[in-house]
Design a protein that fits this description.
By secondary structure, the chain is an alpha+beta fold. 43% of the residues lie in helices and 33% in strands.
Length: 138
């Protein structure tokens, strides 16, 4: 079962402890490590708002918005949940766009399905520079 609720600080270590291969690859590619990202994401969330996605009672993903930018982290179990997790994420993004207007997401993920996944969530590719892509949610 998929459930969502407003982010609580204890959610982040739960998601980060099972961080997906896609997110780990992007972190290391950009010269960061999970500890750096943990602290940066908490600062980002403090500046905005976030929603935690629970799958079968466990925190598996966090979608955060600050200003006009999004930040998403997810566990391996989130991606293993397939369409049911994507439907929840798409609903959260629609709600966030309705509340905040157009939102942007930037990624340098080397994962082959990143573009398809962003489209499924409702984003359109706005700009690509080298290995970095910027998407817009409307």
């Amino acid at each position: 079962m998929i459930e969502t609720r407003p982010f609580q600080p204890l959610d982040l270590p739960l998601v980060m402890s099972g961080l997906s291969d896609q997110h780990l690859a992007e972190l290391y590619k950009s010269g960061h490590n999970p500890v750096d990202v943990f602290h940066s994401l908490m600062t980002f969330i403090d500046a905005g708002e976030a929603v935690t996605i629970f799958i079968d009672g466990r925190a598996q993903a966090i979608l955060a918005v600050a200003g006009k930018h999004t930040w998403f982290v997810a566990s391996k179990a989130y991606f293993a949940a397939g369409p049911r997790a994507i439907r929840a994420s798409r609903r959260i993004m629609r709600d966030m766009v309705a509340k905040h207007g157009p939102l942007f997401s930037t990624t340098a993920s080397p994962h082959k399905d990143t573009h398809r996944w962003m489209r499924v969530l409702g984003a359109a590719l706005q700009e690509k520079r080298g290995e970095t892509s910027r998407y817009i949610f409307r």
